[in-house]
Amino acid sequence: MSLGHMEEATFVFPIRVYYEDTDAGEIVYYANYLKFAERARTEFLRHFNIHQSELLERDRIAFAVRRAEADYRKPAKLDNLLRVETKLTKVAGASVEMEQLIKRDQDILVGVKVKIACIHLEGRPVPIPLEIRNVFKDMLGKNHGK
Asked: Strand 10-16's sheet: what is its strand order?
């Protein structure tokens, strides 16, 4: 069961800021936003019944971050309730690109652009399995109003 939900073509995942996420000033440590984004991507996959543990065990493949870009705009603080919005922007044979917004209410705190590669455990890129690529393409179509 996924912890997030869909709002139109965007997957929304809630995150509460805990003490362990913050620095001495009770502000979220910058690297933790990438952890929040990673959790949201994992729950995004789970929402579509794609389980990374099964891919690892059955097919010996994984999704690995190839590139990430973060734009830090405003800080989150201890006890804030955030939402990570995940939207697909591109699907290719062995990779997918996503944009993620980390928000508090309507304020965008951090924007993350990420490229995820499908890799065999030996480290080489492999095509995204067809059933997963079809899910991604369907989502991408919804994002573009098709």
From this structure: 5-7, 10-16, 81-91, 95-104, 107-120, 61-72
Q: Which of 70, 84, 85, 83 is nearest to 29 (CA)?
A: 70
Determine which one of 23, 59, 71, 107 is catalytic.
23
Give the model confidence (pLDDT) of 52-93 as tens digits: 999 999 999 999 999 999 999 999 999 999 999 999 999 999
Phi, psi at residue 31, to the nearest 5°?
-70, -25
Note the pLDDT tens digit of each residue in 131-140: 999 999 988 8
pTM: 0.92
Return the C-alpha torsion angle 32, 103, 5, 33, nearest 10.
-10
| Known active-site residue 23 | yes
Backbone angles phi, psi at 106, to 5 degrees: -100, -5
